[in-house]
Structure formats: structure tokens, C-alpha cells
Amino acid sequence: MEEGIALSAAALGLLAWGLPKAHRRLQLSRAKHRSLAGHARLAQRLAALLPGYHYDEAQFFGADGAPPEVAARRREGFFRLAALFEALQPRGLELTDAAREGLSDLQFTGRYRVPFPFSPLVRRHLRTSSFVARADGVTVEDVDGNRYHDLTGSYGVNVFGVDFYKACMDEGHAAARELGPILGSYLPCVVRNIERLKALSGLDEVSFHMSGTEAVMQAVRLARYRTGRRHLVRFTGAYHGWWEDVQPGPGNPMPPRETYTLKDMDERSLRVLRTRRDIACVLVNPLQSLHPNANAPGDSALLDSSRRAGVDRAAYAAWLHQLRQVCSERGIALILDEVFTGFRLARGGAQEYFGVRADLVTYGKTLGGGLPVGVVCGGRDWMKRYRDDRPAHICFARGTFNAHPAVMGAMSAFLDRLEQPEVAAIYDGLDARWNRRAAAFNAALAEAGVPVRVAHLSSIWTVLYEQPSRYNWMLQFYLRAHGLALSWVGSGRIVFSLNYGDADFDAVRAKFVAAAREMQADGWWWRDPGLTNRRIRRGLLLEALRRRFG
Ligand SMILES: Cc1ncc(COP(=O)(O)O)c(C=O)c1O
Questions:
Q1: How far, in Å, is the centroid of ligand 1 from the Cα of 444?
Q2: Packing angle, helices 68-88 and 502-521, rounded to 10
Q3: Hey, which of 24, 38, 109, 201 has its CA 20 to 30 A from 388?
Q4: pLDDT beyond 90 at 287
């Protein structure tokens, strides 16, 4: 009898201990986005099942069941572009070929410009040069003398135009000339850099690093150190650099179990933050406001036309405020990763744009004035790397090249210019300007009758496709043929520098429309009226299954 009571007491105890744990576990899984981007381990398993295959020429031009006449038009357009690229870029193609075998990055980017079944034929025929010679204004010139309007934004570095950065880089190198590679002590300009970064971020302290990835690593480490908790929260699809704690990917090491990837803009994620006691920090990339819960849009993932994007600024600001509140209540660090958005959305970055204050802010890219950099700004308590009461308990973070003299000099030049009235004026009416430009762009596309539109967060744009198609990724090559330079991810990420004047902007719009028209005339947007994005995806799944199981 007593034994029975003891047993049921033990069972009750176990239940009392286990139930809340199970409940928290359930809450956590409810706060995960249902897409594969929200389930890294499942994505990894599925990726292992996906067979590698590619289309032969007939399949390439008729993958959507287009009639032979349309496939023939596509083929004609494809080889016309191929001949054009060969003729325009002999030197660039020669250099690209010479570099490719020894440059793994080039092999990777070349392979992933388009969805993989189409990739071999594209690589063989639509060869593009990766070598450039000079840049000025808003254009870049390749080694064969072809000029392109630059829509790459140098991965986001180029906020104010290349000439601005050339001047900052010159000043940086001039400042470091007398010193050479002396590291560990500082150039005097570092004092002013710190002062100005404190003012711009509204935070107490600064640390210097070499890249955005490093800045994020340091911010997370500091949050873990101060809170004594292990777990970090990031949101589905958000990019924070290539460190594995923040970058789940089928071929990358899985992020450790301490990374929770939760749904962006969702009450269930707030509930997790409110109830768990193991969370050190919440990492937010404000660029996600353009496409919450989705990965950065690259053309290699353009399997159909279901890409969606668009900013609801008020809703995102409200979300950040909710995060701010719950982080304050629970002693969690709110880290705003402004490596991309810093100095671009507003002088004070996303903090100013969305009206929220973070505990730690990471910067990078443009802040180096054209040289590599990462910066963490933070409240004093969050930045402290030692404890007075436990002297051996330190949070070590240094780096050989941190605060490199040339980088500090270029940063100083960048921050000097930020104070100049003509640069300050760029921020006046910035959003209204880019809203107006995006509206004009969409109106021109609609008038041309092409199934393409843009969505944007200020000067960061993404191309959307209006009708179901398997060939939208071809647009990147037509854009190139019309003199528009995109980064290797293609039409998903267009980044304008803020020195684009109306004339150059209009030229880009005209080239873009002409490129889309040509692509349409070549039959790539032919459409079986019954075709839907869903049908495309189902067809792709069946195709993959057939390839896998013969
Ligand atoms: C928001 C964000 N965080 C971090 C990084 C990583 O920066 P880096 O490439 O300098 O390591 C990037 C780079 O694109 C970024 O956009």
C-alpha cells in the first residue's frame, strides 16, 4: 500500500516535472515556421534525398510543356544572348575561365545562378565575365570596356556611390601610411570614431571587428556572457553572416541545439520568449521586413513565381516594439543586426527607421568606408567582458586586425562625410523618393504588359513575377544584355546606391523594361492557362521522385 502511494507520488512528481517541460517544447514547435526554412533538420534530410539531375536541350526549352514553336523561339533567344556575351566579353571570359578552376567561390556562384536542372546548359553557353576594371558614378565597367548600371550595391556596402568610397579608402590609406601594419595601438581618429558611433547608435560602447559575421558572433557571445544563458533566437530566413550558429543550411553543420529559429512577426514566438528561461538574445535583421519568414531571394530558388515581398512598415515597427518589451521584461538582449540596413534606411539605420532601441547593434559593410569591417555598439552592461567579483571569468574577444589603421582611417572619412550637409540631405525624403521611384517602375512594367513587378524596402528592391512560370531566372541574363549589373543572386536582390539621380534611374527603368519585353518576345513567359505555381511545384516533386526512384 505504502509502496503504491510512493509510486503514485513519484509518478505525480514526474508528471509535474515533465508536463511544463512538454508544454514548453510544444510552444517552441508551434513557434516554428511551417516552411523548410523553419525546419533546418528536416530540410537537411530532404536535401539528402534530392537527386542531382539536369535537363537536356529539349527539356531545357520545354520544361513547362510549351509547344515546339515556343521552345524554338526560346532556343533562338538563348543562343542569341550566348553569342552576344561571347562577342562582348572575350577578355573577361578568358580570365573567368582561367580563375574558375582554382577559385572555389567562382565555381559555387556560377553553379547557383539558376535552378540546378537548368544550370549545366546555362554554364556551358550563357557565359558571363566576372572581371571588372573600373567604376564611377553609378556605373561599372568590365575588362572588355562594357558599361553597366550597377544594381549590386556591392552587397550593400555601396550606400553613397563608388566615388564616395574611393575617397574614403584613399583617406584611410593616407592616414595609415606613416604607421604601416602596427596593430594593437590606435590611430587618433579612433577616438572620434567611437564618439560618433556612440551618438549614431545611441549606445555606450563600441568594439571593432573585421566583418559583419564577426560582429554578430561577438554580440551573441556578449549576450551569453552577461545572461549566463546559452540560447539565441533568430527568425526564419534571416541572414546574419555565415557563422554556423546563425546559418542553418542543408550542407552546413546544423546550428547547435542552442539556436531557436522562430516565426517572425508571430505571437507564438513572443510566448516562447515570455516563458523560457534559457534565452540569451534575440537577433533581428530588419531587412526581413521586406520578406518575413523567407530566405534572401536568390534566382537559383526561382522554381516558380511564388516569391512574395512587401513591407508593412507600421506592422514591423509594432513587432519590434513587442520584441523590445518582452526582451526588457525577461532580461534578454535585443540585438539589431544592422550590417545591411545601417546608414541605408536612415542615418540612424533601422533603429531610427522603425523607432526602436536595441541593447546591442551590429554594423559592417558601408561603415568601413569601402574597407572590410564589423562593429558592435552596445549598452555598457552588455559590452562588459569581465566581472569585478570573479576576475577569472572573462569573455575573451580580440582579433589581430581589429581596428586596423587603414580601416579606422576610412571609417573616419566615412563618418566625416556623414556630417556634411550634402550627405545629410540625401536622407531628407529618402523613403518618399524610393517609394515614388518604385511606383513609377511598376507603372512602366504594367504599361509594357510584362509579368514583372518590384517590391522594395527603401533602396533595397526585389523582383516579383506575376504569372506562374519556370523561367523567371532567365531575366537576369536579359538584364545583363541590356547593361544592368546584378550580383550573382540575380533579380531577387537589387541594391541601389543613394547617389542615383533621376536621369540614371530613368535609364535603369528603360533598360529593365526593354529587357523584360525582349524576354517576353522570346517566349519564356508563354503560359498554359491551367498552369499554377502549385502545379509547377507538384510537377517538380514528381520529377524529382522519378529521378530518384527511376
Ligand atoms: C544582416 C547581415 N548580417 C551579417 C552579415 C555578414 O557580414 P559579412 O559578410 O561582412 O561577414 C551580412 C552580410 O550580408 C548581413 O547582411
A1: 33
A2: 140
A3: 201
A4: yes
Cβ atoms < 10 Å from Cβ of 422? 7
- The answer, yes or no, to whether any atom of ligand 1 lies below 6 A from the CB of 368, is no
Name the closest-CA residue to atom 3, ligand 1. 240
Q: Which residues lie below 8 Å from residue 6, measured CB to CB, with a gap of 6+? A: none
CA 188 to chain centre: 34
Closest residue CA from atom 5 of ligand 1? 241
What is the whole-number distance in angstroms between the Cα of residue 350 and the centre of ligand 1? 15
| Atom from ligand 1 closest to the CA of residue 214 | 11
Predicted confidence (pLDDT) at residue 425 exceeds the cutoff of 90: yes
Percent of the chain with pLDDT over 70: 96
Backbone angles phi, psi at 386, to 5 degrees: -150, 165
405-417: per-residue pLDDT in tens?
999 999 999 999 9
Cα-Cα-Cα-Cα dihedral sign, residues 82, 88, 90, 91: negative
Q: What is the pLDDT at residue 14? A: 66
* d(CA 374, ligand 1 centre) in Å: 9
The cell for 326 is 518582452
Listed residue (186, 185, 494, 242) closest to 364, CA to CA: 242
Q: What is the pLDDT of residue 6?
A: 60
Nearest-CA residue for ligand 1 atom 13 is 241
Let me know: does 290 contact 30? Beta carbons within 8 Å.
no
Cell (9 digits) for 467: 504569372
Mean pLDDT (the chain) is: 94
Measured CA to CA in angstroms, residue 226 lies from 244, 274, 329, 383 at distances of 21, 19, 16, 9
Give nearest CA residue, ligand 1 atom 12.
241
Give the per-residue pLDDT at 44. Answer: 81
